[in-house]
Amino acid sequence: MGMGRGAGSTALGLFQILLVFLCIFPSVTSPCKILKCNSEFWAATSGSHHVGTEEAPEFCTALRAYAHCTRRTARTCRGDLAYHSAVHGIEDLMVQHNCSKDGPTSQPPL
Hints:
Radius of gyration: 21 Å
Structural class: mainly alpha
Strand content: under 5%
């Protein structure tokens, strides 16, 4: 009986240490790569502050690549607010700029 009580406090201490570790290093707990997708999109569009009609094809290409990147990481990003915000933002931008879902995608920089 005494062994159960001692083991409980040890397990609680171990749990607290693990919780602190996971809070300090959140990337260990979240394999979601949405930040990589965001960075690739912003790098592809960093030169265009205002998308005019002449820049729309390049912007749509970058948006399709961004959407493809988010689809590749969808499984690991379930419940991630940044991921879901990006997906909805992409959909809105595709509609605003009259981009088709089919077509070429830009390749991420090597």
